[in-house]
Each structure stands twice: as C-alpha cells, then as structure tokens.
Amino acid sequence: xxxxxxxxxxxxxxxxxxxxxxxxxxxxxxxxxxxxxxxxxxxxxxxxxxxxxxxxxxxxxxxxxxxxxxxxxxxxxxxxxxxxxxxxxxxxxxxxxxxxxxxxxxxxxxxxxxxxxxxxxxxxxxxxxxxxxxxxxxxxxxxxxxxxxxxxxxxxxxxxxxxxxxxxxxxxxxxxxxxxxxxxxxxxxxxxxxxxxxxxxxxxxxxxxxxxxxxxxxxxxxxxxxxxxxxxxxxxxxxxxxxxxxxxxxxxxxxxxxxxxxxxxxxxxxxx
Length: 272
Prior knowledge:
Blueprint: E1 11-16, H1 18-21, H2 32-48, E2 53-58, H3 61-71, H4 80-106, E3 111-113, E4 120-123, E5 126-130, H5 133-140, E6 144-148, E7 150-154, E8 158-162, H6 164-175, E9 179-184, E10 189-190, E11 199-200, E12 202-203, H7 205-209, H8 226-240, E13 245-250, H9 256-261, E14 268-270
Parallel strand pairs: 1-2, 1-9, 2-6, 3-6, 4-7, 9-13, 12-14
Antiparallel strand pairs: 4-5, 7-8, 10-11, 13-14
C-alpha cells in the first residue's frame, strides 16, 4: 500500500512496543533518545498529512512487566498482596506513559492520554466494555489519543492486565482502522527464531492452518505472550476485518516508523 492519496482518510493504530521504548533487560530503564526520535517521526508524517487519524498505544516494557511478573497480575487479582501488586503495575505503567506524553508534547504532537484502567472493564481477561466517546472525540478534534497496556478491573478475575494488542483488538472492531503498525526491536517475524536468519515477509491465516509457519516466543520476559501471541491475535483480527493489514517491524531503524506511517510495507505484513 503506497498510495499517498489514500493516507489522508486513513485511520492507523500504532503500537510502540515496550521492548522498543525501554530496555527490557534493565528494570525501569526508558530509551529517551529513541522515544524522542520516534515522536519526531510521527510529527513529520502528521505535518505532511494533517488529516491522517492516528491512535497510538505503547507497551509497559521494563516498567510494568517487572511487578506484573512478580505478582502474577495478568492471571488474576484477589488477595491483598495481589491488589498491592495491581497498584504497583498501574504506577509503573503510568510512569512510562508520562514519559511518552512528554516526548510527544516536546515534538508538538497534540497528544492526550486515555488510561484504560479508568474506562475499560474486562471479563475473564477480555474487554467487556469500553467507554469510547472520549477517544472518538479526541480523534474528531484532531488530537492524538494515547493508550497503553494497563491494569484492568475484571468481573471474573478481580483484576488483570490487558496489553496494547488486547486493547487494539477491541478498538479495531469498533473503529475499523486501515492498518495496525506494531513497532518493536525485531525486523519482523522470523521463520527460524532465535537464529533469525530468515524473515517472513507475509503471513496469512492459511500459512498457519497449513502448517507452513511455526511461531516462537520472545527473548526477553513478556507476560503478555511474546511474538507468537501477537501473530495469532493479528491473524484472528484480519480474518474478521479483511480490509485490515498489520505490520510487525523494527522501529529502531531511523526513518522506519515514518516510512511505515506513510504506507510502506516493512518487516512482516499480516493480512487475510
């Protein structure tokens, strides 16, 4: 998809992965210079195409994943100690979110953070309800709504964590984006992870059904499931929304995010 004219009317979801904007091997370590550059690349594309509608999300990286793993928050929250962990995860996710907001505002992006904890209700680890009027209003006003992987109150589990992909999964069914861009530190999906010598440029549901592709996990701890979870979730979504395409690509490369936002296919493209 390289037709620049269509970019004007597109709705794009962008995730800045936790492994991209933090050092996941070093607890509570943001990559501030990289985050600043990513914000500038977004700002450059918005300057070229001011009517491009964009919803941005980010992962928790070395902030939220540390207490989340310690307390097992994603698996449910019931005891007093687990609720303390719930609060700690919320605090760390919110701390990283503020750093993202600061970087975006420094790049003159009209960002508005919409914390999922305050507006999403889950049921057994899935979004059951989300008050979307504020997000829709932000898009209508030309703002850049920002969400993130967050702790969520859950009707069955007490509390849980929903990743940005979980949240995008729900949003996509209501807002029908043209593209979802997942920017991380991998070039895309590797056929031979962890050797990483053969990149899969394209994945469709038929590739998995026919056994042509085997999926692996991620090198660093990731309580939201790693690459396999991302790919399987993406495949389910493109089957339901056949107009949608999803890119998994390396956001570390200078200019890659800008190119992806402008419509180029980088990394691995997932489609129906």
